[in-house]
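Extended Data, panel c. Modelled sequence:
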Amino acid sequence: MRIIPADIKDVPKLYQLQLLAFESEAAMIGSRDVPALQETEEEARRDFANWDTVKLEDDDGTLIGAIRCRQDTGFIDVGRLMIHPDYRRRGLAQKLLAEVDRLYPDTVKALYTCTKSWSNIKLYEKMGYQAYKEHREDSGLSFVYMRK
């Protein structure tokens, strides 16, 4: 397996992975009001240039995971951590989060997830993130904001 930068040609595969990966998130929280599932492929393509995205491929070059991040005022905004469902529970999400730490070693990182996403929250806490606020959306979902 290898972690390498993604480029614009990867958007169709990244988008398909996004839909697949976040479908289980929707099932876990009981709502399809997940931002990653509301985005169209064209919106993903337009937004791609605003992020540094790295992808995780298996030895055959198959896309099995990705994460994106970008510099914000005083911190690194981390998002769209996704692992193909067939490859979960193998420490791959930790590898992608560690890659963000490697890319931005001395900068605060920030991310958010649904408060019902217990497995995500546990992962982020294990990787050193701590909750600092919660926000309830008009959809009725609550999100926890975490930073490291």
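Helices lie at 11-29, 35-38, 41-47, 92-103, 118-126. This feature is highlighted in the accompanying rendering.
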